């Protein structure tokens, strides 16, 4: 049983993972990141799971890497940091991951939220990379993913001043897709997850991969990947079912084949 997470199945095809270290505003310990990576591995292997929602508490999605734990690591400790492998496993999760962000989303917490494919935030949430205040810098993808999400000027401002932005600003900048009332954030993320869970799993998987390629590669390579993925889907039973259902004016029944 994970100790720093709660895992629920609130709807068919949907898993809800809740970070649970309220005493430290969900600060990300090595243990928590390991448990999260393990839960995502289970969700990946489980054919019934089609989308995952990741959330924290009403006060904090996560207030960063655990500073107490970090204080105990010297240069060699950082070099051999087991968290790096956990972050890599989280980053390679192939199914849709939706972050429902309430409250503080700072440092490693903001980096974790940026591992999600879709971010929904409550209107009181704040996003920031305050590492500079500790004499360090983001170390779990923050400089790279934030710049891609919000552009150079705002990313520089956030990382170099350490000052957070509010949810509306994050939405205007493109970091967040929707802003909700605090009590509705998780419900809205679950709604999006349920909508995705009803689609053809292979199409969802390849569409996610193609969209992520757009961040990592040049246009020609991205377009080549899209073309291959589109062609692969032509061989699936779900494509035939999707087209047939449209023609017969009924809802499709996708099987993941
Ligand atoms: N780590 C550990 N404990 C924390 C953290 C944290 N990041 N954030 C909050 N806590 C703890 C506090 O110490 C406090 O515990 P206690 O009651 O025992 O003193 C408890 O949570 C409640 O916090 P506050 O009393 O401070 O609550 P406030 O509402 O007054 O303030 C803030 C909330 C503004 C969020 C404040 O807690 C804060 O500034 N937290 C630190 C934020 C921060 O600097 N985050 C960045 C951390 S560094 C980082 O994330 C680097 C990532 C690199 C990853 C590399 C991986 C390989």
UniProtKB/TrEMBL annotation:
CDD domains documented for this protein: crotonase-like
GO biological process: fatty acid beta-oxidation
GO MF terms held by the record: enoyl-CoA hydratase activity
UniProt enzyme class: lyase
Lineage top rank: taxon: Bacteria
PROSITE patterns the record matches: ENOYL_COA_HYDRATASE
The EC number(s) this enzyme carries: 4.2.1.17
Lyase listed as a keyword: yes
Keyword list, A-Z: Lyase
PANTHER family, alphabetized: ENOYL-COA HYDRATASE, MITOCHONDRIAL, ENOYL-COA HYDRATASE-RELATED
Family: Belongs to the enoyl-CoA hydratase/isomerase family.
Descriptive protein name: 2,3-dehydroadipyl-CoA hydratase
Source organism of the structure: Zestomonas carbonaria
